[in-house]
Amino acid sequence: MSTEMSRRKVLAAGAVLAGSAALAASQEGTAAAAAPATTAKGSPKVKPTIVLVHGGYADSSCWNAAIAELQHRGYTTICGANPLRGIPTDAPYIASLLDSITGPVVLVAHSMGGTVITNAAAGKANVKALVYISAFVPDVGETQGDLINKFPGSEVLPVSVPVPYTKADGTTGTDLYLSKDGQAAFAADIPTETFRVLQATQRPFDAASFTYPTTAAAWKTIPVWGLVAGRDKAIPPACERWMYTRANARKIVEVPTSSHVAMLSHPRIVADLIKDAAEAVS
User: Fold this and answer.
1) Rounded to an integer, what distance in angstroms lies between the CA atom of residue 21 and that of residue 1?
2) At residue 155, does pLDDT exceed 80?
3) What torsion, rounded to 10 degrees, do the Cα atoms 26, 32, 34, 38 define?
4) Interacting residues of 122 by C-beta distance below 8 A, sequence separation 6+
5) Of 37, 154, 236, 240, which has the maximum CB count within 10 A?
6) Residue 79 — φ and ψ, nearest 5°?
7) 12 or 208: which leads in pLDDT
8) Which pTM was predicted?
9) Rounded Cα gap, residues 110 and 116, in angstroms
10) CA 153 to CA 86: how far, in whole Å?
């Protein structure tokens, strides 16, 4: 082999190696630029999915304004369609929704939804925070009936209309609907036109929901955040405050002018509290 040919082969091999090194450096730079933000420990920081559960006299649309705030801040949101039949039905249903979600969850509830998530989240490792918005936070053995009567001030049951319905087993149950005269007790701080739509599209709840004892208390192992509605005439504010304190809530926000439906009248404050919880556990 001539000296000239050997020299050409060496030069060619050097060019290939140089090109490969440049390509590798380029790819490494691209990967570094695309890498997700990391925590102080070096692991990727993942925003939790926000799961919201409504209470009685409502449906998932009651969260619409709060959802818009959360989605604007980059959070994936899911509304659980609470059956409103009582703990034995509602808790397993929401628990199955939680099982379907990959990654961390911040679980939020309003009113009777608080009882549901308290039971449903027990033993769910992916649920990192519980956020109660003017909601029940029962302990094991307690019923909603026990809690709503613990402090004076609830005015919502007198404006509830009982309607018999036939259950799947043929027995008769009783659904409770919020009457057209229920705005002062339930949603005094939203426009009358908005209340009329809410009342017309409401989901009734089975009256037996007040009688089922709580079987698990997820708040004993999962951190809690709570919002007290200062002018709540469904669940008395004193009761909300007492329940959140008992649950060792990391943060309690009080909205002095809010009716029971804080997520409708003060959606930004509600979203801020949910965001606080999400950031604290991320």
Assistant:
1) 29
2) yes
3) 180
4) 216, 217, 218, 221
5) 240
6) -100, 125
7) 208
8) 0.85
9) 10
10) 23
